[in-house]
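Quiz preparation item.
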């Protein structure tokens, strides 16, 4: 398997059609993440409607995440074989039908089935990344993905707020009607603007399992994917541990907790903006390492303040904002690196990396939760976050090492 990034980039054929507008790709990726948590405020009302146990209804969130990961893996490989445009249009169409199905469901079983089918929209996340890579150079790709990442962050932030408002005014079924309308609008836009970017000559016709094996045997693929997984794991540890660690400091105020917890997503938006603005001027691995260093430095400052006994809430949340900023810089660069491993398997790489990132981040958070459950101290949380952030930094340094070694003429 050839891991040479120069050869991988050169192997890619330029598209013969004009690239889609960045706005279209941002909307595609935003729609892919919006359904994740938009229904959270409505879960009690959904449970009441179907007279179902809340744990069962909660599968519409946990089960959706699993379906999303599976969709990412399968859709990426299919798009390598049949093209980006048909897979995207099919995914959006299924999403629209599934949204209508959720709105009309008369039983919890039917609702959960259509909710799982809604996860088809996750395919648009990987496809948006691949289209950018296929229509841009490496530096411009990282920059555009940075702007794309702002949509990933803003959509989940506004989703619960919008969903709660719609539920209060029109009922929870109206949320899925809204999904169907948004899907229809994006479908029309994609049919007009999303042209095929994968030339037939570069499409994969081989065995999908063999394609996965080729990627999983690539040191570059693992370096970038592990960097993303550990980076995401750091964020998951923060989201899971912060409410427990600062509960006493905020006097039990949910409003204050929600405000301060929003600092990390706000940091991600800022980091994504910086990636969009400056990634095209820096080497890919430079952006990646800068993002990881920034997170490690910020968490180190927070840990030092905690060990010195400084307990002000901003002494914790301020340094933790570096997690969001660092991830905002990391994800565009790391995704670009993943997509450049094999130009002919870009879709497969994007989907597989996304699934491994989600699974890896969840695993890290679960393991960290076992330790934090016994010690809810702030310094323990910061120490755990710093450990996972350091692992991400090591992965970023290894990615730079592998790229440099592969770029040598005698390699």
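Solution:
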């Amino acid at each position: 398997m050839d891991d040479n990034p120069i050869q991988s980039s050169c192997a890619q054929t330029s598209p013969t059609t004009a690239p889609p507008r960045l706005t279209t790709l941002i909307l595609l990726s935003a729609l892919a993440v919006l359904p994740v948590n938009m229904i959270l405020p409505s879960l009690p009302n959904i449970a009441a409607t179907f007279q179902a146990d809340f744990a069962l209804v909660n599968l519409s969130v946990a089960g959706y995440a699993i379906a999303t990961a599976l969709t990412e893996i399968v859709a990426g490989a299919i798009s390598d074989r049949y093209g980006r445009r048909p897979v995207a249009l099919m995914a959006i169409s299924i999403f629209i039908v599934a949204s209508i199905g959720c709105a009309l469901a008369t039983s919890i079983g039917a609702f959960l089935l259509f909710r799982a089918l809604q996860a088809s929209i996750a395919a648009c996340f990987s496809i948006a990344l691949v289209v950018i890579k296929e229509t841009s150079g490496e530096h411009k790709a990282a920059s555009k993905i940075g702007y794309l990442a702002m949509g990933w962050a803003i959509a989940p932030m506004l989703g619960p707020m919008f969903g709660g408002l719609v539920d209060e005014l029109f009922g929870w079924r109206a949320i899925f009607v809204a999904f169907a309308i948004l899907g229809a609008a994006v479908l029309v836009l994609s049919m007009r603007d999303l042209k095929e970017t994968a030339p037939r000559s570069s499409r994969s016709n081989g065995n999908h399992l063999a394609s996965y094996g080729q990627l999983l045997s690539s040191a570059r693929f693992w370096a970038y994917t592990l960097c993303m997984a550990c980076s995401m794991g750091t964020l998951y540890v923060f989201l899971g541990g912060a409410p427990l660690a600062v509960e006493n400091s905020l006097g039990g105020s949910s409003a204050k907790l929600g405000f301060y917890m929003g600092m990390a997503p706000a940091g991600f938006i800022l980091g994504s903006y910086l990636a969009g603005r400056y990634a095209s001027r820096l080497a890919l691995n430079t952006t990646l390492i800068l993002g990881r260093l920034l997170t490690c430095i910020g968490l180190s400052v927070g840990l030092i303040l905690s060990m010195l006994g400084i307990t002000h809430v901003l002494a914790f949340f301020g340094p933790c904002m570096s997690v969001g900023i660092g991830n905002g810089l990391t994800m565009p660069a790391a995704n670009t690196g993943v997509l450049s491993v094999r130009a002919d398997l870009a879709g497969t790489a994007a989907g597989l990396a996304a699934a491994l990132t989600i699974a890896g981040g969840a695993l890290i958070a679960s393991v960290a939760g076992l330790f934090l459950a016994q010690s809810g101290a702030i310094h323990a949380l910061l120490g755990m976050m710093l450990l996972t952030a350091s692992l991400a930094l090591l992965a970023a340094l290894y990615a730079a090492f592998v790229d440099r070694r592969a770029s040598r003429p005698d390699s």
